[in-house]
Amino acid sequence: MQSLLKSDPRRLGDMTLVLVTLILVSYGLVMIYSTGIAVAERTYGDSLYFVKRHLFNLLIALGAFYAGYRLDYRLWRKWLPVMMGGILLLLIAVLLSDLGASVKGGRRWLRVAGIGIQPAEFLKIVLIVYVASYLERKQEILGSFLKGLTPNFLITGLYLFLVMMQPDFGSVALMALTVLVMLYLGGGRIVHISASLLSAALVGYLLIISADYRLKRVTAFLNPWDDPQNSGYQIIQAFIAMGSGGWSGRGLGMSRQKLFFLPEAHTDFIFAIIGEEFGFLGALILVALFSIFLWRGFWIAWNAPDSFARNLAAGLTTLLSLQVLFNMGVVPGLLPTKGLSLPFISYGGSSLVTTLLITGILLNISRTVMRIDSNSRASAATPHG
Question: What is the pLDDT of residues 40-52, one digit of tens each?
Fold first, then answer.
């Protein structure tokens, strides 16, 4: 990594994005140790259990990051048919094959050689590549709902249906919103996008009332104190964690809620422990780091050299933006619980791999942006005639 930091920024890409990513990854490693130490000791007899597994996942994720950084972003469009076919088979295998594993009532994982893989995480990138490619190819007919948007909805709907069968409502909502934002940014008419959003909201409402556990999440969001020992328990413990942190927090490792009070303290609710240990100021610093990351992502999209790169970068950045918003919004009670991890920070191998792969792709696009900008400046500085 030091050799990368010493490289010519025009070859490396966006240095701000690189530095923020390093900080977030390091922050995540520290917090996984802090939040998981008690559970790891009691459950596995090894206080470093989650840290060791996270380091293993991080090695794989860094490989994914390097691949995204080195591979020309146009290759993702070229490989799209293979990726869509492969992820379709993986999603079906989760539901129907013996490799599919059930965890806490959801069948979302494939177990291969003792390693868990969550195909829905990788579907996020595949769908974004698909929509970016679609927007580039169908730009002339995007104004038509039937010809421009409906074919896209049919394809993405098939994949989201398979994820919904796992069931994974949070990922479906995240991906559906990302697709709609991409279609709008890519040239879709606001009236069509708004109607599609309302239709998606109606479908979401029907899905919520059709499953008791989803309905309980919503009622717990509206008033967790109605059932403080069951459906409202987790969010109440998150409130206590955030509230007890005050302005400056209890200090690293000093959280009380992680001591078997707050479930999923090292995964979905890690932001609550950050608030408890580092306080409002520490949480605000993390929000600022994510804001810088997302700002650079959208800057790369705005300055991208072609339509595919622009839509790809915008889609990847939108995905991370919404996931950060959904995760952080749950802890103070602004949004219902969705079971989505906090990028770079939460424990989880598939999520970490896809997040760093996304970062690598953004850097690859930014390298192209900076190379073009450098060539343009050199050309302008060269005397003519």
Answer: 888 888 889 999 9
Name the residue with tokens 């059932």: 227
pLDDT digits (tens, 9 = 90+) for 178-223: 999 999 999 889 999 999 999 888 988 888 887 777 788 888 787 8
**DSSP state letters, 305-365:** SSHHHHHHHHHHHHHHHHHHHHHHHHTTTSS-------TTTSS-HHHHHHHHHHHHHHHHH
- Is the N-terminal amide bond of 224 cis, ω within 30° of 0? no
Rg (CA), the chain: 21
Q: Looking at residues 353-378, what average pLDDT do you find?
A: 82
Mean pLDDT within 138-163: 90
Sorted by where each begins, the domain ranges of the chain are 7-371
Token pair listed for 221: 């969001």
Question: How many angstroms separate the Cα of 93 from the Cα of each of 81, 117, 167?
Answer: 18, 11, 14
What's the one-letter identity of residue 57?
A: N
Provide the Cα torsion 332, 338, 344, 347; round to 10°: 100
